[in-house]
Specification:
The protein has one helix at about 90-95; strands at about 5-10, 15-20, 30-40, 45-50, 65-70, 75-80, 90, 95-100. By secondary structure, it is mostly beta strands.
């Protein structure tokens, strides 16, 4: 069953889509460093990321200094919400340099 899932790659690419498995978002030679689920919050103009991939775990944001985002999402801020009581939300848009691609 397809669900709104995302992954990040070691090369800093952010990929999302309605897929059955997180691995369905991988392209040849990708090395995934985590993933989870997403939803759009159009009221606050954000993409909210949360949870983790069963295959790849939580995103390892600390391994990145930039994130390559599809240009269709330009103007939306990106936030990752941890599903525990230990971490504060990670504001991806403020903590990483965002680069857009077509």
């Amino acid at each position: 069953m397809a669900a709104p899932k995302f992954i990040i790659t070691m090369d800093g690419y952010f990929r999302l889509g309605m897929v059955g498995m997180h691995k369905d978002l991988l392209q040849p030679n990708d090395q995934c460093i985590g993933g989870g689920f997403y939803e759009f919050d159009f009221v606050s103009n954000r993409i909210i990321l949360d949870r983790s991939s069963l295959d790849f775990g939580r995103p390892k944001w600390h391994l990145l200094d930039r994130l390559c985002v599809p240009s269709v999402y330009r103007g939306l801020s990106i936030v990752y919400r941890y599903d525990d009581d230990f971490h504060e939300d990670f504001n991806v848009s403020q903590e990483l340099k965002l680069e857009y691609y077509d």
